[in-house]
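Lab notebook, bench 4. Still working through the backlog of constructs that have no structural model yet. Next entry is a single chain of 117 residues. Request: give me the structure tokens for it.
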Amino acid sequence: MLTIDPKSHVPPFEQLRLQLLEQVKTGELAAGTKLPTVRRLAEDLGIAPNTVARAYRELEADGFIETRGRNGTLVSAQGDASEQQGQIAARAYADRIRTLGIDSNVALSWVTKALMP
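Model written out:
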């Protein structure tokens, strides 16, 4: 959940940038997660769209998110090349499981068994 404290001495774009950055670093926002549009997030938070756009631009410049035009803004994979590929594979698997309507606990048990030596 994102919030903006209007009484804070920290500018709103920086509050938003820091919160999103923390969520990416902790994995709360996984690689491939689609972020709200600039307008939607600005409306939800009660701030100007340019404020959200600035936070998104700075996160994109630092490699934490990527904008794919009409496909929206997504969280980028983090870490070394193998970690990034693992995160991308995990997102693809999760998306496919959701599409198939398979229970996430069942899917997790399959992954756990598949990872066993």
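Notes after review: The mean pLDDT is 93. Residues 81-115 form one domain. Flag for follow-up if needed.
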